[in-house]
## 1
Amino acid sequence: MMLGLMLARRGVPVTVLEAHHDFDRDFRGDTLHPAILEIIDQLDLSDKLHAIPHVKWTGPSLVVNGQVVARIDFGRLKTPFPYVMIVAQERFLELLAAEAAESPHFRLVMGAKVQELIEHDGTITGVRYRESGTDQWHEVHATLTVGADGRFSRVRHLAGIEPQILSKPMELLWFRLARRDGDAAKFDSVDALLRRKPLAVLNAADGSAAGFIRRGNRILMIAFNRIDHWQVAYIYPPGSYHELKAAGLDAFRQSVAALEPEFAPHLATLVDWSALSPLSVAFSRCRSWHRPGLLLIGDAAHVMTPAAGAGIKYAIEDAVEAANLLAAPLLTGTLNQQHLASVQRRREWPTRVMQRLASIQQRNLFTSLADRDVAQRPPGVPLILRFLLRIPWLRDLPARFIAFGVRRVRVRG
Ligand SMILES: Cc1cc2nc3c(=O)[nH]c(=O)nc-3n(C[C@H](O)[C@H](O)[C@H](O)COP(=O)(O)OP(=O)(O)OC[C@H]3O[C@@H](n4cnc5c(N)ncnc54)[C@H](O)[C@@H]3O)c2cc1C
């Protein structure tokens, strides 16, 4: 959607095909990092974005025995947007779609499930899609086909490009709990939360808490305040899903209530295992992100696990660099394979660095989850990071890296 918006604004005719009839997808994050908020500002959409209900998150504090021992603080970064915005991705995508629709060059087709590539002499020249719920097939012919269809990318598969798996999967149950009256008093004050000794507090820009992390026996639970509900990630050691499911829903509810006793009443609404989405996500990356006439971006090119918490940032930055590099050759009809390769060259290095660091973090987390000792030591936080966070002139490096990566991406043209 971001690439479609940017290309259409530059006068390139674009058709965006979306398999679903809406943008409401449960299995992806809702975070917009400072780098993305700067990009949105460069697109003149900042006011409209900030008008959507959101939470401003300034980073986690690590807590030991109720005391903050280290903090990653986006609030100190030199940027007009020193926070990660937590905003429903559905609303964000609706905003981009509405803005793109202002351009006569933009067309969005919802319920359009891409099923086949059209190929001539080794060059991809478009796609065939099926209208969802019908047997009607349509073709779209294009100079460039972009596979931005996520981690199970059909386009990638059809193009014969296989991602290399770079890590063990991160496995989690992803579910929602409705916020209840009284939650604000118990969970939204950092002091009140600290008294209950979580492993980490997620800080909001207004000084309140935007969520918390708890650790139990081989489990890590992260609860994000999403205004009217809690989005909960229940992370367990890879390979133990069947054990968890066999123990049953009651045992699961008890396990969550043991981690956070105040959630006991909330759990009454979890009456069916189907309310819990088991997700298994491994880091992966394609060796080549392109073929003649085709480019992969976002998760289709490189999957980030939730441990990175940055898949949206990297997907949007791919789109921005693709628009920066490809708009002119698309407009002049001079697009060639070198242009597509230049997008991968520009984006692969920052992606590699993030995947490498986040997979170390994820490995530490797994090691810690395999350990049955539930002592209050922070899991998966490398010593070096805890050390960095204590030195004044180094302490903002982790926040800066999470916020911007190895280089800032800007909208050009
Ligand atoms: C549980 C979980 C939590 C996460 N939390 C975070 C987080 O907090 N922060 C963060 O930055 N990232 C997070 N991520 C990662 C993030 O969601 C992804 O990296 C990001 O959404 C990738 O964007 P994308 O546009 O490449 O793909 P997607 O967001 O997956 O979008 C792909 C789109 O393509 C459509 N599509 C798929 N197949 C077809 C087809 N055949 N035809 C037409 N359309 C199709 C899909 O319907 C979808 O709308 C999380 C991921 C998971 C699984």
## 2
Amino acid sequence: MAATKITVKSDGSIRVEGDFTIYDQDGNAFDLAGRTAISLCRCGHSQNKPFCDSSHKRAGFQSEIHARRLDPPAPVPLAPAPPKPPST
Ligand code: FES
């Protein structure tokens, strides 16, 4: 399997390249017609969401991105312990 590369562009889209599938919230895959690279909108102005149509340029979208380290994920709370059986 080829690696997937995701690039968050300053003042623009999220570029996805390589081996990937994009799904909607119902689990249906987009037919990308053989594309191995696509840009996703992150400015909210595209008329073809979730894909970028370069509207970010007209909208003057600004968001400078530099890679950084994230804080560790918050711990997942443990499920409550099951009730103890009554003692006899
Ligand atoms: S990022 Fe390009 S149209 Fe939104």
## 3
Amino acid sequence: MIQTLKKLIGTEAAVEENVRLAPYTTMQVGGPADFFIKTASASALECAVRAVRELEVPHFLLGKGANIVIGDAGFRGVVIHNVADRICINGNLITAESGATVYPALIELAAAQSLSGLEHYVGIPSTVGGALWQNLHFLSPAPARERTMFIEEVLDYADLLTEKNESKRVGVDYFEFGYDKSILHWRDDIVLSATFRLLETDKADIYRIMKENLAWRALRHPDLKTEPSVGSIFKKIQGIGAGRLIDECGLKGASFGGMVVTHRHANIIVNHADGTAADLQALVAYVQKEVARQTGYHLETEIEFVGDFAPPTRGGPVFLPRPEGLITAEELAVRDAP
Ligand SMILES: Cc1cc2nc3c(=O)[nH]c(=O)nc-3n(C[C@H](O)[C@H](O)[C@H](O)COP(=O)(O)OP(=O)(O)OC[C@H]3O[C@@H](n4cnc5c(N)ncnc54)[C@H](O)[C@@H]3O)c2cc1C
């Protein structure tokens, strides 16, 4: 298999065997991939995808791994890690290969050119491909923060390798964007690059929004460097909020093995002590069961589970105490309510 893969991919990218995936995800969990291909250009990505399709081998395209949890038993097949990150600017159009990092690479470059439209997404771990898959979103600028802004608002067009192996340039309508969704959830198209149409604005305004948004996030989100996570775990329930339900059910601090519902933000689970994907699954199931029992609401996960999962190895729930002096995201929401 590896020889056939290598032959099809040629010099475009290296193929490795038995590569542990945890370091490639923000949750820091996940067993080995049978085969691992790192693609450093859009053409290498296209070549790798064509190869795995031709071989009809199971495959998964990995960006920053910020919206997925990979099972402890890993992935049987080929993981393609997309690090194609070339970016170029033409007037107010900025084109990025799909493995480019939205922040800092893309946003810092746009800001330095006084180009506005992407700065709202500062501090969110994402590649350009992942951002289109999920329609990256964040609140509009302070102080009003009156609506959610989506990356689709600045997307001009994208170059795809479609699920039928055609190279195709598509506009924003093609993606059928919604909240946390795009056509990429149900069509196996691959984004090779994307072009954003930005607005020339006063640079100081862009940097002000970046600073305010980074400060907003630092108060409400655990720091990925010390507390690995995958962002929000459960989908928003309109008008109620998944985090609020979890908080009201007294589930902050609930922990299975090395995974805990952080006291900082009820909708975020952090890996605080060599947690496993199985710990996470057990904790997610426990939170869903408790919330349903106490409120009647069913919480749906918004993250993707990838690969093979093993049964839980460590028990729970154990409840960890709230750190002294912490102001939680839920308390800040009440404080900031109009
Ligand atoms: C601390 C933290 C905070 C977060 N805050 C936010 C937030 O405020 N707003 C928000 O919207 N999200 C947020 N997220 C979620 C996450 O950052 C986004 O969903 C992000 O877009 C994921 O990008 P990624 O590159 O990591 O994708 P991955 O997790 O690697 O992949 C996600 C999916 O996209 C697919 N994919 C990746 N690249 C391509 C491509 N080129 N073509 C086709 N499909 C592709 C993958 O196959 C996979 O199915 C947060 C996550 C964390 C960890």
## 4
Amino acid sequence: MQNYRQFVAVVMMFFLFLSSCRTNDTRKIEAEAAVAFEAWAVEESVPYKEVSYQVIEGDETFVTVRVTAMLRESAAAAWLEKQADIECRLVGEQWQCDSYFAFSPTETGSDFVMQEIAADKPVTASAMYAYNSGHAFRPYSIVDGQTVELHCDKATEDGNSYWLLPDHQTGWVQVDLQRPYKIAKLRWLNTHNGRCGDRATTKFHIALSKTGLFTGEETVIYDGIMPFTPSPQFEEFVLSAPIEAQYARFYVDEYHNWGGGLNEFEIYEEQGEQRR
Ligand SMILES: [Ca+2]
């Protein structure tokens, strides 16, 4: 019983401290945490919004502040609610807070996982560039997970891993996911036709379909341009709400020099549940 009373007394003192801390120093501490967070976000180029700060424990000279914010990895990515706990300490009369923030998803936020579902699935195309009987830049190369563009005078059989359209043609390449998925994100990597640098897609659009007909039932989810570069990088698009579809088609609408193509096409399903 003695221990229990001591425990209750300690707990009450702790909450009394917290309430006094809140009324006296909390505003100052949270303001310092905000200064530290904003400096970190600028330094790390992290997009953010809806930031809140809360002193969750501590004493007169050392406290823990929980920072909760909506963050995303890039301008095209989805916002996720995340939190990080940092420590702030009183140095002289000035509160100073940690300058590093290790964010993780909040317990009440969404907890979706993006699963890639296009790898090794069947791929077809309107046409492909092929020459010298057997050398072909095959449609399947867009889901093989390889980004090699070593040669431009040899086809996929010789180590290259990208699909090309024949000379001076527009067209499309399409993945059959073999069953419907709730598609939430797409990533793609343009080709530059290896060291030749004479083929690439420069204008395109992406459509999803449940049936694979693409005769008007499809949903165009993205259209864009890709100025030619000899070192293309992955680009991505996150849908504002997932769309159920079995087929994803990438249309080459304009091309660089001899023709268009694509190196990789990734399709992501959103898995998991919202925990709110
Ligand atoms: Ca590839």
